[in-house]
Amino acid sequence: MLSIQSKLPQTGTTIFTVMSALANECGAINLSQGFPNFPSSSRLTELVAQYMREGYNQYAPMPGVPELRAQIAAKIHHLYQIEVDPDQEITVTAGATQALFTAIAAFVSAGDEVIIVEPAYDSYGPSIEVMGAQVVPYQLGAPDYQIDWEAFAKLITPSTRMIIINTPHNPTGSILEAEDLQKLDQLTRDTEILVLSDEVYEHLIYDKEQHQSILRYPALRSRSLAVYSFGKTFHNTGWKIGYCVAPPELMKEFRKVHQFNVFSVNTPMQYALAKFMESPEEYLSLSTFFQEKRDFFLAEMKGSSLRPLACRGTYFHLFDYSAISELPEHEFAIWMTKNIGVAAIPVSAFYHQQKSDRVIRLCFAKTNDTLEQAAVLLQKL
Ligand code: PMP
Ligand code: GLN
């Protein structure tokens, strides 16, 4: 008999897989896992087909197709007014998940500590632990989920190797402001600490707020790896394409791992994305598009016993159900899927330790028909 010593003894199947499977099993409307239920642009899918037909079907260059990296650099310049060298500072990845994992594997070693902000996207913890490093959670609290930087600073020790931030923030919909980035800059200056900045929702920011990319802050940028996802931007989460931006000395180490982790990413899709990105309006229109969805869903939910929290970014909305049930979040999400017919994500799944603020996350990246039908069901609560 093999005796297997798990490297991740506390890790089960991700909540997104669990809740989507339950939604399918129950025939419930799936507002749990974050993905759009409307199609990606037909022009973009047609471009993929065209590049496939034209024979762009062999390995892409290891760091990504040059045309795509050039378009990414142009987008960064357009959005954040900075120059990024596409040859040395950008690598195309198999989604943001692989970029996050690769960045952690490249820089975090056994015995290191990595500070994450909880509730935290569920891939961070296991990616750190599998390296033999320790997760140090900073816990945000409902309902406003703001970082108290004085309390945060107390978590830093001589073993701190990396800090992971995420703005706009999944699952809370909160965002970091310029002041937060300035505080992070002060905390990390003259240290060996790297910052991993998860910015997959950079375009999904509402009410005329400005996304505070780490790339806007030169000192922070020099110690940071920033991670993005085309799945979020162009409504095709199943394509699993993203990218990482980092200064040359960090990118050099990132690529050492990337080349043996995945080597390179789907060639025809990279060419198609490069062509598609020649029109910046494709991503510039996103905040208006999703803000309308957020507002439509909120209007449909008006009067519901589920109390909405603030949503300043992402395509997730938190709702407090304390007026309805005393069940812990996981049980409530399962109960709601089975009995009301709408699947949600319990926010407790994004914390290391047991916690229940009686808050669930609903994804509003859905057609208005789906949002309307879900709201009718949720109004019964
Ligand atoms: N980070 C965050 C905060 C996310 O919500 C997600 C999932 N969408 C990812 C990373 C992973 O992105 P991808 O699907 O491109 O791997
Ligand atoms: N990012 C998505 C979410 O938060 C899901 C990603 C996944 O299923 N791995 O729902």
Describe this protein's structure.
This protein is of the alpha/beta class. The chain folds into two domains: 15-40 and 284-378, Aspartate Aminotransferase, domain 1, CATH 3.90.1150; 55-280, Aspartate Aminotransferase, domain 2 (3-Layer(aba) Sandwich), CATH 3.40.640. Helices cover 40% and strands 15% of the residues. The chain contains 16 helices and 13 strands. It has helices at 15-26, 42-53, 66-80, 86-89, 95-107, 124-129, 149-153, 178-188, 218-221, 230-233, 248-261, 267-276, 281-284, 286-301, 329-339, 368-378, and strands at 29-30, 90-93, 113-118, 134-139, 160-166, 194-198, 224-229, 242-245, 307-308, 316-320, 342-343, 345-346, 359-363. The strands form three sheets. It has a seven-stranded mixed sheet, with helices on both faces. β5 (160-166), α8 (178-188) and β6 form a beta-alpha-beta unit. α5 (95-107) packs across α11 and α14 (286-301) runs parallel beside α16 (368-378). The protein is globular, with a radius of gyration of 21 Å. The termini are far apart. The mean pLDDT is 96. 4'-deoxy-4'-aminopyridoxal-5'-phosphate binds next to α5.
